[in-house]
Design brief:
- By secondary structure, the protein is an alpha+beta fold.
- It folds into three domains: 8-79, Uridine Diphospho-n-acetylenolpyruvylglucosamine Reductase, domain 2 (2-Layer Sandwich); 82-207, Uridine Diphospho-n-acetylenolpyruvylglucosamine Reductase, domain 3 (2-Layer Sandwich); 212-292, Uridine Diphospho-n-acetylenolpyruvylglucosamine Reductase, domain 1, CATH 3.90.78.10.
- The protein is built from six helices and 20 strands.
- It has helices spanning 38-50, 101-110, 126-131, 191-208, 228-234, 263-281, and strands spanning 12-16, 28-35, 55-58, 64-66, 71-78, 86-89, 92-96, 113-114, 135-136, 139-140, 145-151, 157-161, 167-168, 171-172, 178-185, 187-188, 241-242, 245-247, 255-257, 290-292.
- It has a five-stranded antiparallel beta sheet with strand order 6-7-15-11-12. The protein has a four-stranded mixed beta sheet with strand order 1-2-5-3, with helices on one face.
- It is globular, with a radius of gyration of 20 Å.
- The protein starts with 11 loop residues before the first strand and ends with a strand.
């Protein structure tokens, strides 16, 4: 495919993706590009659409399972400074989609603003967190959003106001767009008090999420009135192994890459978890991670 001359050398072919994901699993992308500006991003999107090449947007890679066979498409990572910038304006933070959640939370604390403490320990970038309405302890990011700037997959810009956004449990109406930036409304607070709340959230998370092996966090969404981890645990699946993958012994909704696991190994365990929970509880577990095939 003929890419623009100014970008041709930066669009890499057969690019291995495993090391860019927290699972450390998966094959290569047909094309890989790190966008440094919105204009570059638009150029590449327009050409990819003309050539009918699927586009995948990669953030921190913390909730993605990539196929062993790789992806016959273009993977784009938002790497420019514009996508990683944070600005304070009163009680609002304006942040790019590539900002890591931990950085955003600490910036808020250091600015004397509260409201993001529940993000403590959650990996990922703002873009992915908005698309999936990330949250913890009955708090979610969507509730704090004032507006969001996006591109569609044809490169056309759009701005969503809060009233146009639809956030629900681990989903939003932003997943059909490429998120560029967002404005988040917070509240003034004492820095020390905010720091203490962050430590509380980190402590709560550490009690159930102790695993150091590569993983993608919670595999399934929590069904209404219960948690996926409790249902899987009740089926006696903790410690179950398939190839190089294992269901965590400390958190049954985690699958770990124990020994050079393949995506096939992980998918096999996911299928087992779904089948056992369906049979025993008549509950259909829905994946929280994105599966790129």
């Amino acid at each position: 495919m003929l890419w623009p001359k100014n970008l041709n050398k930066r669009i890499k072919a057969n690019f291995k993706l495993a090391e860019l994901t927290s699972f450390k699993v998966g094959g290569a992308a047909r094309f890989f590009f790190e966008a440094k500006s919105v204009q570059e991003l638009q150029e590449v999107l327009i050409l990819a659409r003309r050539a009918d090449i699927p586009v995948f947007i990669l953030g921190a890679g913390s909730n993605i399972l990539v196929s062993d066979a790789g992806l016959d498409g273009l993977v784009i990572k938002l790497s420019g400074r514009l996508f990683k910038r944070i600005k304070r304006k009163g009680n609002f933070l304006e942040a790019g989609a590539g900002v890591k959640l931990n950085q955003l939370m600490l910036y808020a604390r250091n600015s004397g603003l509260c409201g993001l403490e529940f993000l403590a320990g959650i990996p990922g970038t703002l873009g992915g967190a908005l698309a999936g309405n990330a949250g913890a302890r009955e708090r979610s990011l969507g509730a704090l959003v004032k507006d969001v700037c996006v591109l569609d997959y044809g490169g056309k810009p759009r701005r969503f106001l809060a009233k146009q956004l639809k956030f629900a449990y681990r989903k939003s109406n932003l997943n059909k767009y490429i998120i560029l930036s967002a404005r988040i409304k917070l509240r003034k607070a004492n820095k020390h008090a905010v720091g203490l709340r962050i430590r509380e959230y980190l402590l709560l998370r550490s009690k159930t999420q102790k695993d150091a092996l590569p993983n993608a966090g919670c595999i399934f969404k929590n069904p209404a009135g219960n948690t996926a981890g409790k249902l899987v645990d009740a089926c006696g699946l903790k410690g179950k192994i398939k190839g190089g993958a294992i269901i965590s012994k400390s958190h049954a909704n985690f699958i770990l890459n124990k020994d050079k696991a393949s995506s096939k190994d992980i998918l096999s365990l996911m299928d087992l978890m779904q089948r056992k929970v369906r049979k025993r509880f008549k509950v259909e577990l829905e994946p929280e991670i994105k599966i790129w095939m």
